[in-house]
Each structure stands twice: as C-alpha cells, then as structure tokens.
Design a protein that fits this description.
With about 675 residues, the chain is mainly alpha-helical. The chain contains 27 helices and 5 strands. It is elongated, with a radius of gyration of 32 Å.
Length: about 675
C-alpha cells in the first residue's frame, strides 16, 4: 500500500491536518511490531507516507484522478471532523469514494471542533455538527474517533489511537509500549548519572556503533531517494522534444518514446548503475506489456550485466526477468529466477518487501505450468495473505492473486473452482479498472476456456469473441495475447467445419506468436495444432503434416495436453498417405498420454480408438478396424453431433469401413 492513510479535511482545518501528518509520519514503530503483516503491508520502523494535499481539487467539479488514485492506494481514511469539514463537498465525496472501495471499516475520525451528532440530538445546535453526513449513508455506523478538543483525549493519546487503527493493533498495546519506552529512556538517564565514568567508555562505543548504523541507514535512504529522483528526471526527459521539427505534424508514439529511451540509457548513466538498472527494468516491463517480448527480454538481460549492489533493485530486475522467461514458456527457469528474486527482496536491511507478493505469484504461475500445482498453491496463497493484509479485499493485487489461483485450479481440472476465482477477480477489477483493462480481457478468455471444457461451446465462443475484440482495441492487432484470443475463436469455427475462416485467423495467430516467441512456446501447441486441422480440412495434407509436426515439437517440449490429440491427427494423415504402420505406431504413443491427460473426457480416448480402427482397415485388418470404430462411436456421438468436425469424420470412417454402403449407424 503506497499510503498509510489519506487525510480528508476542509481547507480551514489545514493547521490540524498538518499537525496530524507530522504526528503520523514521525512515529517510530516499536521493534516488537516490526515485521508484522498489517493493512499497510509488513511493518518497518516507519509507516508509509500519509496523503494530505488536495490543492488539485480547486478548479474541478469532481474528485481529481490523482486523489481517487491516492484513495485506492491508502490503507486508511482519517477524516478531520469539524463543522467546516462536515459541510465540505470534498470531504463527503472522499468518504463516499473510500466506502465504494469496500473499506468502510478502515475509516477513522479526528474530532477537532464542534459536536458529534449535533444534527440529531434534541436541543443541540445543528450548525455545530462535526461528523460529515457521508459517514452514515447506506447504513454506515459512526467510525472510531479520537478527540483533541479541550478536556478530551489530548494529542498524544489521539495520535496513538489513530496509529493503532492504521496498523490494526490494540490501542492499549501501543499505549503500554509507549509508556515502557519512556520509562526506559528515564532509566537510561538515571542509570547513566549513577554509574558515571565507569560506563562512559561503553557509552562512547555504543554511540559510535549507533552513529555508524545511523549513517549507513541514512546513506541507504539517501541513495534510494537519489535513485528515485534521477529515475523520474530521466523518464520525464524522454517526453521532451528538443527539436520541434521532429514531432511537427505527427504523433509521437509510445513505442517511439521507448526506443528513444532505450538508446539514451544504453549510452549514459555509466556512473549510476542503480539508476540505469531501474530504468532498464522499467523499459523492459513496458516492452513486455506492449507485446515486444524479444526486445523486453534483451533489455532486462542487458541490465543484469550492471554492477548493482542494492538488493531491492536487483530483486526488481529478477522479477522482470522471471516474467519474461514465463512469457517465453521457460517455466522451470523462471521458477528458479523468482526464487533468487525472493531472497533479495526479503533482505531485512535493504530489500523491498513490496515485491514479495508479486514474486510469489510469478513463481506460483511458473510452478503451475510445470505441474507443481501444490507448490504453486502455497506460493499464491501466501501472496494473497500479504496483499489482503496490505490492501484489503478489493484491490488489483488481490485480483491478480485470485487469477493465479484460478489458473492453478484450471491446471488441476477443478473447473468450478477456477470459474469462481476468475469471477471474483472480475468483480474487483471492473469497478476499479474498467472493462477495457487487459486483465479483464484475460479473465474473459479463461472463463471462455472453462465454458469450452464444460462443453458449452456457444458460451465459450461468446466470451472468446468478446475478449478478442477487447484485446485488439486495447493491445493492438499484433500483441501476442491477441494470438491466444484468435486461436480460441478459430477453434470453435473449426469444430463447426468453418475451415476457410478459421485458417485465416490461425495463420495470423501463428505469425504474431512467432514474431515474439520461440517456435516451441507452449501456446503454439494449440495454435499450430488447430492450424493443421484447418489445412487438412482445406485439403492441404502436406502442409497439415508439416504444421502438426511443428505443433508436436512445442507440445513435447512442455508435455502439453495437446500432445495426444496432435499425435492422433498425425496418425490419421499417415494412414491417408498409405503408411498405416507409422500411423499405428503414433497411436500407440498417443493412447497412454490421452488416458493420463484426459481421464474424465471419454470422447478423447474414443477418438484414438476410432483413428486406430481407420488405420487397421488401411493395413488390411478390416475386422479389427471395424470393431474398433464401432466400439468408439457411442462416446464420440455423445460429445459431437454429426454436423461437427469430429462427429462428421467419425461417421465417415464408419461408413468407409463398411465399404461405403449401408446406413450410417
């Protein structure tokens, strides 16, 4: 969470708000609490910053986007309560926006004047009401309040109450630890006076050690600040056009800015390796997000040659590298990279705790892809616990974790669980990020896959078509993720024997994928497998064989679940070409794989048997072949109507096995 709290106040109460800001940001978290998960993330020695400034609202009729973003990134909302605050449009709008995020229980009040509930108490002056009405809308109860009016809590106690609420600890626990800290300080003073010169040498040594540690921490903080400032300064410079003629009459595209940035970084910042590494990591992530996978991968690998001594920066580099490796289908390698990143991010002195959850999710997704689904579940649920503690239940980071759990459930064929997880993720993302967000499209794609596996092809096609339109609009026509959506839509077209329209889509999906991914990427097992079916449907047997062989290479590299279906198609083509012995050998390999990968999908195993029957007939073993085809027909007919690709092929094989005469059973 970026901010520990968002202070909502009327401009007339700025003095009290400024005191509150300093009181919260100057607080040193007790050592016994440091390392504990909280709503602001894992507690360190200080809380994250507090958001106060609302000057940008002056000329707007709605909450500024920057303020809405700050509310999203704030663990708590502290409302400065006074008659002016209660009447403030902006204070009430900020409360409503925070409640809409599902965080009503994270609102606290600081009463500085007026009277609470004066608008409802008999005999009270309504003009003195200090609690904004938005607090009570939609059945809201009065939040916890601290009170610094004369004769009330006092500033010290009010500060501790608010801090307890922010960190999610008991007020008494903080109060007692604060009292103990003061007692220790007094004891140190008294003890030092009594012991005198005997202890002076020890104190001097302690002072030197403490000073050295303070200097080290100061230098670390200063270096991080310098790195951040230099990074921002460099990025801002990328948007400056030194020669107006360069941009005159033309738009400067995001990709052009990236290219400019990459070129400038390569030739500069030689004496600032941490700044250079941060910038190269950011550029890599943006390239990857835009679908330029090869460029993004090259940049992050180049950045690893820099001599970076900051574990937090190095962890971020490895997180980006692991993401790139995952996108390239190098899942086992990616899992090891994420493990290295996790060790660096967890460094107690100079790591970056904010990276721990995304690293865990990345490692979980990589593990899931290599069938370590139990390890994946443990990683992702650990990340989910961290993110819920830091952000609450309705945050994009939590949606990301739910999506990763959904993918893992899908890998385990727990379709109902997977569907529920993706739907929960969408319920978080859509209100916060809108329908156009790329992850929303990905979720619809996965829901389409679940519908397809549940044999609801119509629902699958609708979801996949929706995802494809969104991807093309948001990501552009040549993004690798678009290729996945294209493949899914084309698959449904194939099944209803729309070979020509499916072929055009699949050629496009293949070309997009190969521009940015290796020829053995696991997604190509589907894309090329389907393209081979389309080519075969169009009578291009030689092309289909070559395409399916390429698909098999990708499938074998990942033990992909499309291996057995590809082997069955290659066997069918071999038997058509007059080499039934090769076809039967391919089917011998396909049969046990199909049983292992599709234990609950009887038509898949029946399809291998049906194809074996065709090859047996071609090999002159007609009786065996006809028996195999007949045995397989019930399971195939239960799944595929005669008008579909597999239904029609099975019926044709049965008729051919009978010599082309007689009714089709």
């Amino acid at each position: 969470m970026r901010y520990a709290a968002f202070i909502s106040y009327n401009h007339r109460d700025r003095k009290a708000a400024s005191w509150l800001l300093k009181a919260l940001e100057s607080y040193r978290v007790p050592k016994r609490l440091q390392g504990r998960p909280s709503a602001v993330g894992v507690l360190g020695n200080r809380l994250p910053p507090v958001f106060q400034d609302r000057a940008e609202l002056a000329a707007s009729s709605n909450l500024a986007e920057s303020v809405r973003a700050a509310l999203v990134d704030s663990a708590s909302l502290i409302v400065v309560c006074s008659p002016d605050g209660a009447r403030s449009k902006w204070v009430n709008e900020e409360i409503r926006a925070f409640v809409a995020l599902g965080r009503r229980d994270r609102i606290q009040c600081l009463i500085i004047g007026g009277e609470p509930n004066a608008s409802t108490l008999p005999g009270a002056d309504p003009a003195l009401e200090c609690l904004p009405p938005a607090l009570f809308e939609d059945g809201g109860a009065e939040p916890l309040a601290s009170d610094i009016r004369p004769g009330k809590d006092g500033r010290a106690a009010a500060r501790l109450k608010l801090l307890a609420g922010i960190m999610g600890v008991g007020y008494d626990e903080l109060r007692q630890r604060e009292a103990s800290r003061r007692q220790r300080q007094l004891a140190i003073v008294a003890g030092a006076s009594a012991i005198g010169f005997v202890v002076m040498a020890g104190l001097a040594v302690s002072a030197v050690l403490a000073r050295n540690e303070a200097v080290l921490q100061r230098d670390i903080a200063r270096q991080k600040t310098i790195t951040a400032e230099r990074t921002v300064e460099f990025v801002q410079s990328l948007f400056e056009v030194s020669d107006p003629s360069e941009a005159k009459g033309a738009q400067v595209s995001a990709l052009a800015i990236l290219e400019k940035g990459a070129a400038r970084i390569a030739g500069s910042l030689g004496n600032e390796p941490s700044v250079k590494a941060e910038l190269m990591t950011t550029l890599s992530k943006v390239y990857l997000g835009l679908g330029s996978l090869r460029k993004g991968d090259a940049i992050i690998r180049d950045s690893l040659r820099l001599k970076v001594d900051d574990p937090g920066v190095a962890a971020r580099q490895l997180l980006a590298l692991g993401d790139s490796e995952t996108r390239q289908g190098e899942y086992a390698t990616a899992a090891k990279t994420f493990t290295r990143a996790l060790a660096l991010a967890s460094d107690s002195r100079r790591g970056n705790p904010a990276l721990i959850a995304p690293i865990l999710v990345g490692r979980g997704e990589a593990r899931s892809a290599v069938d370590d689904t139990r390890g994946a579940e443990a990683d992702i649920r650990r990340a989910l616990a961290v993110d819920r503690a830091g952000f609450g239940d309705r945050h994009p980071a939590v949606a990301r974790d739910l999506e990763a759990l959904g993918l893992n459930a899908l890998a385990e064929d727990r379709l109902g669980d997977a569907k529920a997880l993706f739907e929960r993720a969408l319920a978080i993302r859509i209100p916060l990020q809108g329908l156009a967000h790329p992850r929303v499209s990905e979720d619809y794609n996965e829901l389409g896959s679940i519908a397809y596996l549940q044999r609801d092809s119509a629902a699958a096609e609708a979801l996949w078509t929706r995802a494809l339109k969104s991807d093309e609009l948001v990501l552009g026509p040549d993004h690798p993720d678009v290729a996945i959506s294209i493949n899914n839509v084309a698959r449904v077209m194939l099944e209803r024997r729309g070979f020509a329209e499916a072929y055009k889509l699949l050629v496009r999906a293949r070309d997009i994928s190969l521009r940015q991914r290796s020829a053995t990427h696991d997604d190509l097992a589907f894309v090329l497998g389907n393209l081979g079916l389309a080519e075969r449907g169009l009578g291009q047997a030689a092309a289909a064989t070559a395409t399916l062989q390429a698909a098999l290479l990708a499938a074998d590299a990942h033990k992909h679940r499309n291996r057995a279906p590809i082997l069955a198609e290659l066997a069918d083509l071999a038997c058509d070409r007059g080499t039934p012995a090769r076809g039967l050998a391919l089917l011998d390999r396909a049969a046990p794989i199909m049983r292992a990968d599709y234990p609950d999908d009887p038509w898949r195993q029946a399809w291998v048997l049906n194809t074996r029957g065709k090859c047996l007939v071609a090999a002159g073993r007609g009786a065996e072949g006809r028996a195999a085809i007949a045995e397989s027909m019930a399971a195939i007919r239960a799944r595929w109507p005669r008008s579909t690709l597999f239904g029609a092929l099975a019926e044709q094989r049965l008729q051919d096995a009978r010599g082309g005469v007689g009714p089709v059973a």
